[in-house]
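# nightly structure sweep
# worker-07 picked up a monomer target from the shared queue
# config: single-sequence mode, recycle default, output format = structure tokens
# input follows
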Amino acid sequence: MAQCVQSVQEFIQDSFVPLVAALCSEEAERLTRKNNLGFSELVKPFCRLTSEVHMRDPNNQLHIIKNLKIAVNNIITHSPQPGGIRKLLNDVVSVSQPAEGLVTNVITAGDYDLNISDRSVTASVPWYNNWKDTLMELNASTFYSATTPWFEAYRESFLQSMPASDHEFLNHYVACMLVVSSSEPEPVEQFLKLSQEQHRIQHSSEYAYPKWFIPNTLKYYVLLHDVSAGEEQRADSVYEEMKQRYGTQGCYLLKINSRGSNRGADEQIPDPWSQYLQKNSIQNQESYDDGPYTVISNKNADHLISDGLDNDIQDGLSNNFKAHPLQLDHLSDTSSSFDGTDYIRTTSSLHESKKTSSGTPHGACLTLTDHDRIRQFIQEFTFRGLLPHIEKTIRQLNDQLISRKGLSRSLFSATKKWFSGSKVPEKSINELKNTSGLLYPPEAPELQIRKMADLCFLVQHYELAYSCYHTAKKDFLNDQAMLYAAGALEMAAVSAFLQPGAPRPYPAHYMDTAIQTYRDICKNMVLAERCVLLSAEILKSQSKYSDAAALLIRLTSEDSDLRSALLLEQAAHCFINMKSPMVRKFAFHMILAGHRYSKAGQKKHALRCYCQAMQVYKGKGWSLAEDHINFTIGRQSFTLRQLDNAVSAFRHILINDSKQPAAQQGTFLREYLYVYKNVTQLSPDGPLPQLPLPYINNSATRVFFGHDRRPAEGEKQAATHISLDQEYDCESSHQWKELEEQVVAVVNKGVIPSNFQPTQYCLNSYSDNSKFPLAVVEEPVTVEVAFRNPLKIPLLLTDLSLLWKFQPKDFSAKHNGATKELACGNDMIGAEVIAEFLINSEETKLARLKLFPHQTGELHILGVVYNLGTIQGTVMIDGIDPSIGLQAGKFVYNGISVRGRQDLEIQGPRLNNTKEEKTSIKYGPDRRLDPIITEEMPLLEVFFINFPTGLLCGEIRKAYVEFVNVSKCPLTALKVVSKHPEFFTFGGNTGVLTPLNPSASENCSAYKTVVTDSTSVCTALMSSASSVNFGLGTGSQPEVIHVPLPDSVLLPGASIQLPMWLHGPDEEGVHEINFLFYYESIKKHSKMCHRVLRHTAVICTSRSLNVRATVCRSNALEDEGKGDNMLVFVDVENINTSEAGVKEFHIVQVSSNSKHWKLQKAVNRFEDKDYKLASRERGKLCFKAVRCKNSGENYTFADVVFGNEQIISSASPCADFFFRSLSSELKRTHAQSNIFQGAAKQSFDEAVRLIQKCSEVDLNIVVLWKAYVVEDSKQLILEGQHHIVLHTVGKEAFSFPQKQESPEMVLLKFFRPENTSLPTRPTPEQLSNLIKTSLHYPESFNHSFHQKSLCLVPVTLLLSNCSEADVDVIIDLRHKTTSPEALEIHGSFTWLGQTQYKLQLKSQEVYNLQLKACFVRTGVYNLGTHRVFAKLADQVTLFETSQQNSMPALIIINNI
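# output follows
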């Protein structure tokens, strides 16, 4: 049970007190009414004695009475009716509510405290850990109180209102006060009349009520004197006369009203009566009659809220009572039923009397002295009148019993004799006959024993009382007078408990027998309830909570919902106060108590019980139990007009992952909508509250700035740009950002501005939302909201739109450095409204809502606003008319729809940069919903015409790009940036260099061509061009390409088409190529400097030709001055698999371009001019390359033509793609050299660089081809070109990038780095290219050995310095071939003359050295036996090495 203010001893003592009747004259009543009090009410606060009282028992032993209390009541001759008692108890419980401020909200409500220790719980409760958090949370909370004042008030009123019974005397009157005013003409005669009236009431047969203890009732005469109005002398004289007539101990002069009612209003006098007047007793009410009441059954107590409720509920509470803390208004349902019945007509109610009295002060004419006089009066009455009378009565009863029973001495010795002998076993309750109707006459000895026991009990003589009760119990049981026996058993048990020193244990079985007898045999639930209340309190005081709970639960029944509710609630508190708290039983019985409270019409208490139980059930996964509790809380709150709490409770049902079936979820939703509608009707102009459905995934909200992408129109393909249909790709987003930074850096002369903000058209949870995004006026802002319907029923959202706040500002006009704020109008922002948006059961659906800003400023998107409703069905709606509620499509609109909102609150990313952020949980801002609307900007749309989706590797295709300015502002500075600039070109400024021949351009060629004559087939055709003409000047970014607009401006509404050449990537497969178009407005803006447009082209390339090339130095030193020439070998293979319908490739031209070298002619020229390769065929071409005159930064182009048309390789688009591929190749090789060489490259000294330069060659080869394709019975000509960049002599180069082979896994080696770094040596290949040698001699020589035995042959050794520095050369002719194989093939010979030569060759010098070879016989000889050593002139011999000739120099010696 819950904690009580009183101890159990105090509670029992105050429940059974001596009753004193009060009979007042009219004049005396008038005097007390000056204080707004009756006489019994006047003395009520002073009826507890403040000192101990002594009396003697029948054995003349002194007995001490402590804290004695008496009850003074007006005489009421009508016994209270059951209906009146029920009404009183219902009102008492209804009025008593928890103190305000203890409950925070409807879900976490509770008003109790759990004092639970860990030591007592952990060892005995296996599930303790699961509930420990709940217990500790409740225990530590300051929002709970363990008391239940409504139960205590009910218990007190119940015990006070019990009607007097004949089988017991505890509530019979012991004495009667006769009160007369001193101002009456004949006070003594008035006393006589009152005495006669009392005698008539007690002894006349016409009055069965009230009951009197003994025939000779004590009469106490009280003379009431009004000090302020009466004559004190007359009062004293009357009092003297009374003392002579009634004795000094039988009368009293009570002086009151010392203060006039019209003065001293400012003096504050305490009011001790208010607390007693609030506790009403049945004696203070008018008598109730069962006749006038018409009772109807409350069958509709739990009707559906949606069926309609009475809103006109009147307030029946006194202003002195605090309302339920969950209550929104001050309305309470006092007109509801109690115990399941509704009273149509009642007499004056308790609340009405309180309304009139609560506002008036009590005791206004009394001073503190008067208070002391009343207290002294009660004390005198008790000391001198009541207790001596009771003592005398006990002696008389004791003597009568001794004489009648023939017992000796007193009852004490008799009881000892009885108890010392053998005990007769008591009969069980089931063996006894139903003789509850047996009545004893008043003078029966058994009743005299009971009367004596009750008197002893009232004066706290519990030992003597127990003996008497025990004796009477035996007598009653022997007579089978079960009602009397049950009463004796009940009081015997209580007496045994209250005996000081506890000589015997509490006989709980006495109480159990009494309860069973009252309930089952006597059918008296009132007495059974009294037994339960007493016994449960006693058991609770002994910490027997389990027994107390079982006892309380046993008395719950269907005849009284209020009693059952109170007892179930107390049983729940017993479970929670046990040594091992049973939290789930507590919650379950609180639910049962709440249900019975609801049936009894106690809606507030029902709500409180459900709220307390909810603390236990929430968060434990018992969703169905939570749903039931929340549903009931919602209903009760609605009944109490606590609409916000009702909405909150129903909201919890909907937002949890409900396991309810679809039909039940539909019911919950309809209830919620109905309650919500009532809330909105109360405050139609108030803010829109939050709706719980559907769920919104805030983090998945996406914001898109700009118009939707146009679809493709015929051959026109719009730029892909960005849209909400595209999924976010982090890598792609990073690439777009890099491209934008690249073009911005170019525009701003290599520096990215500090206020640069990357353009983001689509914001989501992955994008950087730390800055305010920028939107453009008159361009839509689209917000994509992800809705999820958690229910199994469809939801219909109507009139769905965005909720926003806008602050207009003028960013263009500056006033003292601040932006100018404008007045806000209703037409600043246009909002799109979705008329109907259906979300099927458990579906996630995206809604795209648009705003149209018409003014610059700051926009804040707050959330969404919509009407929430349901439909019947699960398929798509064709059309619904909500106004008529009829089926317009496939569904019927159910008519319940409410308007509300949901906020879009997006949490930013977790901050994790500084130490403070890492050690705490902080989140950054997410401003995707707070765009800044900037002034008007140009808007570009790009369309691609005849743009291919598939190309051959290296294929050249011509397409067109259309640029359209769809805004009202002109745009300029149009550029395009791409990571693959070698893929496309808009053409260079080379139109003047190579005029276009009208006869050229056969078959609509993409190249500029010129018809060649037959004389030019042997040698290459020369031309030159600069990279500056193709947008690739020094220091420029090849990725950023300027779009050649006329006058560099595109006016509003204008469009222009420009040609665009495409070059198929060299690698086969699918390629995604990103284009970023950059443009600006002519007018500079403060917020937005530029705009971009994205396009991703997807090209699928298939294999065409595989081209390899090698360059090597020619051994022939011809008479061309310096004699510098090389051989270029080009290997071409057709690797096409004929998938694209390509039959064969025709090599139409091979061109070279370089600053230092050029192709001179084809060495292995075919007679057939057509050079074609079928599938898997391979051809080898050899060209002679010579040095060209230095032309500065210009590149020399040489075209070797294999057909009738020369493709101008120095013009667009051939040169464009060459320069772009060259730039990409240089970028790639530079990156590789940085990776593989790193710092070693920086450590090269000048000498090593010179040696390396000898083996370097800067020659680029372009192979141009045509292919014939049959497609749709038409023959198409495809053109293309491949590029090979030759860097090093002797190293093979490829037209496509080679895949790097992954290195093999090796064991990890640890080594200590050397501190001394040795200079890097050139490789032998590099040193061998320092000097080029060539032997000039006759291939055969005829000599007559018969005439001369020695044959001398002149040989010329040509030495060419390939470097740009002086070189020291040593020629050693002493080397002999030692290998036997060489000797077998070539004969031996001897050089004549000097065997070693030392020379110094200047830069690029060619030196002729004359030698003589001596032969002694005929044969074939190898003259390449000389060794050449070379080193730089200013270097030591560190780099000296042999310059061996790889090719043999064979001479044939013939004999004539």
